[in-house]
Amino acid sequence: MIQRTLEVGTSVLASTFAAWRGSMTQRPAERLPLKPLELYEFEACPHCRLVREALTELDLDAMIYPCPKDGRRFRSKVQTLGGKQQYPFLVDPNTGARLYEAADIVAYLGKTYGGPVRKPQGLRRQLVLAGSMAATAARSWRGPRGLRMRVSKPPKKPLELYSFESSPYSRLAREALCELELPYLLRSTGKARMSDMGPPSFRDKLFKGPKDTSRNRKALLERTGQVQVPYLIDPNTGTEMYESAAIVKYLDRTYAG
After folding, report:
1. What do you get for the CA distance between the two ends of the chain, in Å?
2. Fewer CB atoms near the end CB (10 Å): N or C, the chain?
């Protein structure tokens, strides 16, 4: 119980240090990619976090290929595709674009898919990056989470995760997926209205607003009858589940070792 409290508490702290960026679908992309974007990254990377924040804010999904340190599955592919091992690395099969550098990726996503083009400069860029680095530090009380590879069995099909970047509970699931090098389709499920704020039990009783306020929140509501993240879908076993603690245990039991 104490460990669980610390896990959630430090994850909340990480979101606070990052100023809760990646919570809201602020300006959904005007055009959705026909083929999923491909993002090679690892959860603990401060620069990668900035790209995941943009995915939430633009309401864009992406295939995540986790590349933790000492990873064996996807790091060599980044070298082959881009010529160097640097993260984040975005591949857009819709345009053929391949980009390093978080700021360039965020600007590209906004320009290509019709959302805000954000490329912080000077002091603002330094402050944003410092907050992202502090978020990584907050999740390092037992060693950095989402940083190093753990031996695992590869899934035949990618998993699927409904998540938004600043969600403290979603972060715990993403860290496990990253460490186990499990590829997954990230379904960006950002909050679209103020009535979406707060835990589901509190939010639904207090605001009683519509739950289908964004594209993936609507899809999740239609699929399960409620909107809560993280939500994991594993087509390899037919498993679907809420609750971060249950998801982490399931991933360890099914794929670790």
Report:
1. 25
2. N
H or E stretch at 187 = strand 184-188
Bridge partner list, 143: 141
pLDDT in tens, 9-25: 999 999 999 999 999 88
pTM: 0.93
CB atoms within 10 A of CB 179: 26
In terms of phi and psi (left: phi > 0; alpha: psi -120 to 50; beta: otherwise), the region of 5 is alpha
Coil/strand/helix, residue 97: strand
Q: CA–CA separation, 66 vs 139, rounded Å?
A: 18
State pLDDT tens for residues 198-234: 666 666 666 566 777 889 999 999 999 999 999 999 9
Strand partners for 159: 184
